[in-house]
Records
---
Amino acid sequence: MYQTLRQIIRIGIRTEARPAPAMDNVVVQRLQADILRTLGRALTIRHVDAGSCNACELEAQALSNPYYNLEGLGIRHVASPRHADALMVTGPVSKHMAIALKRTYDAMPEPKLVIAVGECACGGGIFGDSYATVGALSKILPVDVAIPGCPPSPTAMLQGILAAISAPARSEPR
Amino acid sequence: MNVAPLGLAAAALPAGIPAQRAQVSSGQLLTACRLAWENDGKLVALWASDERDRRRGFCVRVVVEDRDGLTVLEHTLPDPDARYPDLTAIFPAANRMQRATYDLVGVAAESDDQRPWLWLASWPIDQFPLRRDFVASAQWDPGQEEYDFVKVEGDGVHEIPVGPVHAGIIEPGHFRFQVVGEKVLRLEERLGYTHKGIEKRFESFPILDGGRLAGRVSGDSTVAYAWAYAQALECIAHSAAPPRAAWLRALCLERERLANHLGDLGALGNDGGFAFGLAQFSRLREDVLRINDKAFGHRLLMDVVVPGGVARDIAFEHVHAMRDEADRLTREIVALRAIYDEHAGLQDRFRTCGRVTPELAAKMGLLGLAGRASGVRRDLRCDFPCPPYDALHVRIVSATAGDVWARVTVRFDEALESARLIALITAALLDPAAMGDTRVALADTPADRLAIGYIEGWRGPVLVALESGPNGTIRRCHPQDPSWCNWPVIEHAAIGNIVPDFPLINKSFNLSYSGHDL
């Protein structure tokens, strides 16, 4: 126990300042003020891997490390879609995952956001669309924010997620 | 493997390690596999190719690895209705490879188990994507498959379906538990959800460009796959990467291993209820990835290893940064290990959990890291060292307990060994004698050549079998992840454990879904 506490004190707090939202990533102007008023700055995210190579997952996991400290920003990954405000999808939407993905989306309460993470979810990426893949996520779900990159860095992901909850015309919560 | 006693003529096969190929009849295929098994041989890959355009029907290839290297057994089927022998009784891992081969190529083994494996009703069951007349862009609507899970019956037995969507940021797959109370009586996996047609996709890539796709078969092993692909292509082109490129490849491969082990050690601590471990190790992992980004322009080192060498050389300041980091990481890992060792809660969760005995590991053909935690002392970096590993003398790490704790200790030891190797590699990179080109242009690739790349990734040996087509095209490329051989073993490791220990057991193997589903 002594060693554990000593390590915690020795390392200290490593969390970095949050980056500015990347508004360029907002692809559909669905981010109306009323949605954002409901969600506020706190956000719960349900992630679905729809055929990713796992690189996007590694970087999404990194968001929870002490440097990015996602939870410190009021943003959490949740296990159930019923607890989620946003659906974060990686991968070129493999046909085998398409039904599970739509069911996850349907299980989420309104209002809900959809975030496409990585080159594949944004446009099919290197796998394209084929007998096995749908390609771009926007073909089957309304995408609010698209974060390109192969894989996008945690900072890029964070900027995209922050963009989802900070639209420019956002009115202050009452 | 000496195939001469079987009356077989073997020809040399260009590959990253000593390899041979032999044409076999169905009887010889069985005998050769049995002989390989008796001599401690492992099944590492099985796939088929449509050869009807060459008027040779279909070719089933079975690859076994033993102390002499790789042996590729090639069996020709005259037409799609012909069957090849079921190898499951010799190599249990063959079961799923055979079923996947049917799903994709449409040739079946003489097996009782003809359930689909990679097919999940997203294309017609009588269409086979890897046949040459199958159009890759063909579209069908996703369907729902009724899979025939084995059920356990009895008083108080019930079933828990889990997935494909899991409660975390992880890959998708389905697990079907048959339980009594908390105790797992049986676990059955159902994979294939991330199938994205990679093998078919390869056929549309120029052979010089296919490394990018290989590097995305499994994102956590991008260096291993890219290297295996490059190795195969260099064999076909009769070319070799310059010495400095070999050092840089090894640097990347060890950094990939280190980053994955650090991530897993944190995640395993977290799954054992010790969030401190995740915070500490995820910090160390991030440090490694940030230096990767500065040095090579990519945090996970994608597209750094390319056919002919590496995409870019490394600046001196980054070599120094990596050398200093290796020292610092070694100290940090040793300190954290002491904390894990003395944490009663973690020890209670880790010890005897998800045990794979060395006997079971040998019988099931467990590979790589998980194999070494169950007494299977194999590591390509030691057994068949390619440059620069021949100059590095990697110390093999192993354990015999075969439980989650053993897989944790192997990760600790291998992370420390990788840090040691990184220090050695950085020293070599700074040596004036090691300056020079980092890439050679590959000459025209002759058509119709088969070669194999074989690299010890962090999870285990990664195999890429590459066959060239005319005019710089890919005729067939089959990547095989060690996860194929290890997934079936998790079904055994889970038996008798409690359901809440399953995430811990699964994480301790940390197998690839994407690399398996292709």
Note: Strands of chain A lie at 43-49, 75-77, 86-90, 113-117, 145-147.
---
Amino acid sequence: MDNKILYVEDNPDDAILTALAFRKAGIKTSLELASDGEQAIAALQRNHATAPPCCVLLDVKLPTMSGLEVLAWIRSQPALKRLPVVMLTSSILPGDINRAYDLGANSYLVKPSDLDSLVALAKSIDEYWLRINVNAGAAQVA
Amino acid sequence: MNTDQLPGARTAPDKSQKVATTNGSNRGKPDYKTDILVVDDREDKLLALEAILASLGQNIVKARSGKEALRLLLKQDFAVILLDVSMPGMDGFETASLIRKRLNSEHTPIIFVTAIGGSENHIARGYSLGAVDYILAPILPDVLRAKVSVFVELHRKTELIRSQAECLRQDVAARKAAEEQVCLLNVELEQRITALTEVNRELEAFNYSIAHDFRGPLRSMSGFSSALIEEEGDKLSSLGLDYARRINRSAKYMDNLLLDMLAYSRLVKSEMPPVPVLLEDPINELLGILESDIRERGVHLELASPLGMVYAHPPTLKQIVSNLIGNSLKFTAPDRPPKVRIFTTRRQAFLRLWIEDNGIGIDPQYHEKVFGLFQRLHDSQKYPGTGIGLALVRKGAERMGGASGLESRLGEGSRFWVDLPIAEDAQNGQ
């Protein structure tokens, strides 16, 4: 399994800041950026047989295809049913949160507005979704 | 023959004119005068009958022939008709049969007055024509009055019933109109509700836009200014670093402002089902979060347990308690060690939660103002804040069926209070 995170984000500022936060948190895992839903699906289709990502960070509000639609597509793919998907978004609408979990999101994180919190969030993503979960996945595979 | 041409006959139409204009609403009243029609071709007999009946206090209308009587009956109705049997031309019997043929006089009581009398046939004919009584001459005044007064009374009562029925009919009509009015108002109200719901939906979309679209750029300002300070700070002059910190502070302040505004708008529109809450729970939870802050500031904190149980919406109660305790820790006086006391008093069906401090206090003229939205009494350098905190306290307390207020004097500390419905039953059940 390749150590790579697919990060779906249309806002370039957020993309840079999240990448910075991951670096500051000391996370070595590389981020592969997709700036809309179609790009994300294309990347998953291209790679999932050979080098699937270990985790997807998914924004909700995206141009044309929404993050929730991307999530639904991921869960419709038998090979991607267990892929960890973390929603990383600024939407705090209860409707969005509930729908994301209904559609099979593993976690729903609200983008913090300051860098320190973003670093802390990156660390928690790393600790849970990139280590514990990957190990669990590896154990399952074994 | 042309008796109706006699000068005396002119009185009758005048009288009928007067009766015709009588207001219907007077008809049922006790002082309402009924009309008695007296028909006789002889003036002396008319006068005699009028004299006998005068003491009944009713209107006496005189007719000198059957024809005139019929004409009068066209214009008005009478309580009773005294009808002379033997008149030239149209006699009493003929007149009576014509009176009975008319719809509006078919039930008018007729008393025949006659000097002929004696003959059983005569009387029988009178009754067959619809006479209700028969008076034979010589007339006994008391008997005549007694008989006539029975019909006067009957007529009065009939009129009373009729007027009451009319009143009822009008009442029903009025009620119907009122009901229609209510229906109309309901429709209007529903339209307004629909319009308001629409406005609310728009406001919700607006709030979402504030949460999402406004916070995005703020995140960039805050994030990149932090990155500038932390990553590139060594390349910046101290002035450049100061500028970057100011940008960072402002962005964070604006973000807090937006979060408070969102919290306030959620408070205004969301449902908040009340549940019994032990006041200690949210307060201890909050004091746990603030523990290091309390210790660093050297605050002497006193919690008068047990505080009691209230009906509240837990997240809103937490927000209120957080804002009040936060204020008591923030507005401390520089010249004395800060003290905060949390206790409750009982006020009928409410429990009053007090948060008392020995801080800078608030001039009484600002006591109401501080609960307003965006109201601040101090510059943000000295005491930072968004000016929404106490507005949240007030709105939250109101939404939970309670109230809020404060007692304070400038320089002497403040005591803020929140009233919430007491949850005594729930407490006893524990």
Note: Residues 3-139 of chain B form a domain with the Rossmann fold fold (CATH 3.40.50.2300).
